[in-house]
Design goal:
Elements (H helix, E strand, L loop, with lengths): L1 H20 L2 H23 L12 H32 L3 H4 L5 H27 L12 H25 L3 H17 L12 H7 L3 H14 L6 H25 L6
Helix pairs in contact: 1-5, 2-3, 2-5, 3-5, 3-6, 3-7, 3-9, 5-6, 5-10, 6-9, 6-10, 9-10
C-alpha cells in the first residue's frame, strides 16, 4: 500500500501542476500583466507624492515587492480553491477520495501545487518589473524574502483549500475571495507603508496577518520594514501552522467532502 500512496500523491500533485500550466496564458501571464498595470499606474501617479521609509526608498521600488507578494498570495489561493470546487461541482472529487491517500497526502498535493503557481506568477512579476527598477536584483536579504514567499504562499494555498472545502458553489467561493482575501490583501501595505496612516489605522493593520507577510518580504529587498522581520516571521509561521492543523482536521473528518 505504501508505494501506491506515494504514487497517488505524486499523481495528484502532477495533476494540480498540469491543471494551471495547460492554461498558462490565463493563470500566469494574465496576473503578471495585471501587476504590471498596477505598477505603471500607481508609480506614475504617486512617485513624486509619496515618501516611504523616510525617503530612503523610491516609491516605485517600494511598490514592486508588494505587487510580487500580492501576486503570490492571490494566485496560490486561486489555485487550490478553484481546483477543489471544480472537482466538487463536476463530481470527479470521488476519484480523488477513493485512492488510499491520507489527509496529509491530499493536503500536501493541493498546497504544494498552489504554492508552485503562486511562486511562478510572483517570479514572472518580479522579472517584468526589473525593467523599471533593476536595482532590486541586488537584494540585501534574499533568504528573508524567500522565507516569507514560501510561508505566504503556503498560508494562502491552505486558505484556498479551506474555502474549497467549505464552498458548495462558485458564488460562495467568490464571496470568500471578495470579502476576505481581497480586503486583507489590499489593506496589508502593498501600496503604502502603515506609518503613513493615522494611529488608529496603524494599530488595526497590525491585526492583519497579510501585513506581516508583505512587510517581511519587503525587508528582504531593502533591509527596511515597518516591524522587525523576526516578529513578522514568528506571526506568519504561527498562522501557517494553525491553518495547516485546521485543514488537516477538516480533511480527516471529510467535512463537506464525503456525504
Amino acid at each position: 500500500m505504501t508505494p501506491a500512496v506515494g504514487s497517488g500523491w505524486r499523481t495528484l500533485l502532477y495533476k494540480e501542476l498540469l491543471r494551471f500550466w495547460k492554461v498558462a496564458f490565463q493563470t500566469i501571464l494574465a496576473p503578471v500583466l495585471t501587476s504590471l498595470l498596477y505598477l505603471l499606474i500607481f508609480s506614475h501617479v504617486l512617485e513624486n507624492n509619496v515618501s516611504v521609509f523616510d525617503g530612503k526608498v523610491r516609491y516605485t521600488a517600494f511598490l514592486v515587492p508588494g505587487l510580487v507578494m500580492m501576486s503570490v498570495l492571490q494566485n496560490a489561493f486561486a489555485n487550490s480553491s478553484s481546483s477543489l470546487i471544480q472537482s466538487k461541482i463536476t463530481g470527479n472529487l470521488i476519484f480523488v477520495l477513493l485512492p488510499p491517500l491520507s489527509p496529509a497526502n491530499l493536503f500536501a498535493a493541493y498546497v504544494v501545487g498552489a504554492m508552485v503557481r503562486g511562486l511562478v506568477v510572483g517570479l514572472g512579476v518580479f522579472i517584468v518589473t526589473l525593467f523599471f527598477v533593476p536595482s532590486l536584483l541586488s537584494m540585501p536579504h534574499p533568504f528573508w524574502a524567500l522565507a516569507f514567499a514560501l510561508l505566504g504562499s503556503a498560508i494562502l494555498a491552505t486558505l484556498g483549500l479551506i474555502a474549497g472545502i467549505w464552498a458548495e458553489k462558485f458564488d460562495q467561493l467568490s464571496a470568500f475571495q471578495n470579502f476576505i482575501i481581497m480586503p486583507f490583501t489590499f489593506l496589508s501595505g502593498v501600496f503604502y507603508s502603515i506609518h503613513t496612516l493615522p494611529p488608529f489605522w496603524q494599530q488595526l493593520s497590525r491585526f492583519n496577518p497579510f501585513f506581516y507577510m508583505i512587510d517581511g518580504f519587503r525587508y528582504g529587498f531593502f533591509g527596511l520594514s515597518d516591524v522587525p522581520p523576526f516578529t513578522s516571521l514568528v506571526i506568519v509561521a504561527a498562522c501557517c501552522l494553525l491553518l495547516s492543523l485546521l485543514t488537516l482536521s477538516l480533511l480527516r473528518r471529510g467535512w463537506k467532502l464525503r456525504r
